[in-house]
Structures are given as C-alpha cells and as structure tokens.
Amino acid sequence: MATITTFRLTLSPFEPSDWPFFLRLRESPEIMRYMAAIAPEKETRRLFAARLTTPHTFVIRTHDDDTPLGDIGLQISAQYPEEADIGYTVIPAAQGRGIASEALHAVCEYAFIRMGIKAVNAYVLADNGGSVRVLEKAGFVRTQVLEQAYEINGVRYDDWVYRLELGAA
Q1: Is 63 exposed, middle or buried (0-12, 13-18, 19+ CB in 10 A)?
Q2: Rounded to 5 degrees, what angle do the CA atoms 111, 68, 84 make?
C-alpha cells in the first residue's frame, strides 16, 4: 500500500499500533458529532481491522512527529470505478492548521494521477462548517443537498454532496 508525503505530512497505511489512536478518534464526541453515533468497541475493532487491509486509507502525521493527527481515505465506487468517495477526520488539537486541506489535496492528487480516478465525491453534514470550508477551498463544488437525509443519535441533518473532477483543482 502507498505512502503519500507532502510538504509537512506523511500519510501512511494503518498499522496495528494505530489502534489506540483510532479508538480515541471513534470515541470522541467532538469528532463523531459529524460522523455517526459512537459505536461499541467491538464494532470499532471490526472497522479498524478493515482499515488495516483496505487500500487507499491513511493515518495523517507530520514528518517530525509520529503522533497521529487524523485519518483520510478513498473508497472506489463499485458501480463507477472511475469515481471515489473521500472521508477524513482530524483531531481537534490539529484543526485550523491546514492539516485537513493539505491531506485532502494530496489524496485527491494521488487518486487522479496514480489511480486514474476522474471524480472524487465527499459527503458532509451541513452543520460541519470546518469541513465545508476545507472542501470548498480544495475546489470541491456542492452538487446536491440531501435534506434531513442523515441521522445521528436520533437527530436528522442535511447532508451536502461535494464533487471534485479531474482537472478542476
């Protein structure tokens, strides 16, 4: 599996030693409020096991520190193999420093150049202003509003669909 480097970041495949970080991320109410309900540890372990073998999923770190700052990954569409969905999280302490933007740019470039992807899609809750700014700054265009389409802990949210096409960034 690939490792991607940027000016400040190393995006590397998940390793078994990343489990404590992944668990903290998935148990953080601050992170999960925009993603899903916090799952039982058994389900989080299954998700982590999948991350260990899923291609195109990465842990975000700076070059000078092994501390994980977030994760980012692509999922290739089974129906449209030239398209991928992207998702990412960054720990609160690293937010607002351009980490998500730099990682997003690098993974989209990787998708377009090394994987032959023609379009990358992202789904973000309308309430997640930070992620909306990251996507729009990267050149993603909102293509759809799915009203009250996503539910977390019994609350329904609008889900916004963003898209970046090859050559548009």
Answers
A1: exposed
A2: 20
